[in-house]
Amino acid sequence: MMFNSRRKLVTLALTSAIGCFTPLSMAAKSPFWTKLTIPNDAPAQAIGTYQAGCLAGGKSLPPNGKGYQVMRLTRGRFYGHPDLVDFIKGLAAGMDKHNVGTLLVGDLSMARGGPFVRGHRSHQNGLDADLWYNLEKDRPLSLHEREALGAYSLVTANGRTVKPRLWSNNHQQMLKLAASNPKVDRIFVNAAIKKQLCKTKTSADDDWIRKIRPWWGHADHFHVRMKCPADSPQCKSQAPIPKGSGCDKSLNWWFAKHKPAPKKKPSKKPVKPKPKLPYWQQVKLPKACSQIFRAKSKYFH
């Protein structure tokens, strides 16, 4: 009897620690899936969308590999679908082969995906990765450096051009290697970086430059988004990229002055604004995610 009681206590402690059976409704202030540090024991699957999804059978990217190093290890955001992990390893190996530099890897997804408490709205289904533009770290970084070092911006303060003293052909080569991978859906960069690529492109570059999409921010890193994998029927793709290289008049929009939206007329009756919920509480996740968050890890069977 005493042995059985102790075994129950140990089982209960482990269950509480990994949050396997915590109801979703109990995750009021901090969702329990953000505390899960081990993927569930299931075949790899990206589920849902990039902004509302989760990750089954996630794979961790080792902290060090040929041509790359993972930054901000304490965040625990180095998990992804095997397609994403293999892509990063392949990109780093290609950069090493062409003497482009060392790839510094930022956030991927959490162990089982899902929304973050703060920061990203995407990176939820194991198919997104932030990769830094820093290329000069050709030595092993200490754990302290991985937490303290920052990514530098390649874009001028006015947001219109790249910084000539920082931008190099190696940055273009890195983006080309990344975008040329057939499993990559698109890559988000700052509009000034897209403009720089368009300046020097030839017609032979159109296929990979088409995948490079301008977006807000992304001056100190680029955001890679993989296509939905063949093994993930519940993964929902983003709308297809428009035809063309993206170096046309549509790019000018990012550098034009936009009129501010007209202010709404104040209501006669004062209305008390409702408190805005954090993004993770607004997201409607696929039903499968609840099972993935609650599932046991293979390490605790």
Describe the structure.
InterPro entries: Peptidase_M74, Zn_M74/Hedgehog-like. Pfam families: Peptidase_M74. One of its GO terms (molecular function) is hydrolase activity. By secondary structure, the chain is of the alpha+beta class. The chain has one domain: Muramoyl-pentapeptide Carboxypeptidase, domain 2, CATH 3.30.1380.10. 25% of the residues lie in helices and 13% in strands. The chain is built from 8 helices and 11 strands. It has helices at 2-18, 82-97, 143-148, 169-179, 191-200, 206-209, 279-282, 287-294, and strands at residues 45-48, 53-56, 59-60, 64-65, 68-70, 79-80, 103-105, 128-132, 184-189, 212-214, 221-226. The strands form 4 sheets. It has a 4-stranded mixed sheet. Strands 4-5-7 form a 3-stranded mixed sheet, covered by helices on one side. Strand 4 (64-65) and strand 5 (68-70) form a beta hairpin. Helix 2 (82-97) packs antiparallel against helix 4 (169-179). The longest helix has 17 residues, at 2-18. It is globular and about 50 Å long.
* Rg, Cα atoms, Å: 22 Å
Q: How many structural units, i.e. domains?
A: 1
Report the sheet-strand fraction.
Answer: 5-15%
Strand order, main sheet: write it out.
8-11-9-10
Which key phrases capture this entry?
single chain; 301 residues; alpha+beta; Muramoyl-pentapeptide Carboxypeptidase, domain 2; three-stranded mixed beta sheet; disordered N terminus; EC 3.4.-.-; zinc; metalloprotease
